[in-house]
Amino acid sequence: MMLLRYGVMLKGQIFINNINKNFRQYRRLLELNCLFFSTSPCKMEDVKDIKYGPLPADSPYVKPFRLYYTQNGVEKNWDCLKVHDSVAIIIFNVTRKKLVLVKQFRPAVYYGIVSEEGDPNNIDYEKFPPKIGITLELCAGIVDKNKSLKEIAQEEVLEECGYDVPLDKIEEVLVYRSGVGVSSAVQSLFYCEVTDELRKNKGGGVDHEIIEIAEFSIEEIEEKMKPGNVHTSPPSFLFGILWFLTNKAPLYR
User: What topology does CATH give the domain 85-251?
Assistant: First the structure.
């Protein structure tokens, strides 16, 4: 009887230990989920008091100027902007076969939409909610540090998306000029593959940046790229996705 009772107690203790172990694992899973995958869409859309005015002369990001020249014997001029060059990175998570993209509120996009259909000086926030200015983009950043382009790309991937990617795993795709009608800034496009193990933080940007991570399967991104869809995304995003679908996606179907 004592042996039977002891056996029941022992089995009961093992059962309780298994419950505790499973609970600890489940709690850890929840903690990781909060750390790596939680987002705050309401925070990004909490935009108000929008107004606009003349550009200060000391802007560190945009320098307007007028270029004068003679072409085919005719004197001409062109209004231009001096802006930073940039990097953009196509990120593919091979663990879950998902493209890793980012969302953020772009004031210029919001202003462009409002100015087409409303009054930028008197904005109707019900008709023009801030979410219309949120774009879907590649991870990207300006070139404003004394580092190589790959190092800047590596830093942006960590800051915005939370992945610590080795430099030798970042592949250069090509270099092109954006905004050729106004700025002609150089953008360098890169590609890298990541795994869940490379995820070191939840990303989201630095300082006061508010960036959300958005993941899409190959099938989901193909759906978004179908003819007839309207995008607020920049051309670099559309080109980068098409490059991925042509050159990398076939390897993971």
Answer: Nucleoside Triphosphate Pyrophosphohydrolase (3.90.79)
